[in-house]
Amino acid sequence: MIHSEKELISAAVDVRNHAYAPYSNFKVGAAVETEDGDIYTGCNVESASYGLTVCAERVAIWKGISRGVTRFGRIAVVCDTEELTPPCGVCRQIIWEFCGDVPVILSNLHGKTETIQMSELLPRAFDSKFLK
Ligand code: THU
Question: CATH assignment of 5-122?
């Protein structure tokens, strides 16, 4: 672990400012670390055609993948909610695919944080092992 939870949260707070969420007004920031010590960040990007919306977590992972990263570590997710917001179901599947059973760090803008293991968020996950 090269980065502290605080650094990941801070990167997610910063990128959240770029969220394009005019329809939901629900801004999300995510930051995922790599084994090389890099951090990839993402915000949610919405569309007038609502179903095209992409979540912050996937934007962060897609950015890393497109730079050649194949495996990630912990991911931080930041929203402005009192009850900490966990990744949606689709993002849980994608985090499992590329990060595996990592700690997921949830935070709001007021310093409330909680860390949950991916296997708790997505028990009995479907993954590549079933395809062999
Ligand atoms: N959203 C995320 O970015 N990540 C999640 O895990 C939950 C939902 C975004 C999608 C949409 O832009 C807004 O939050 C409301 O659903």
Answer: 3.40.140.10
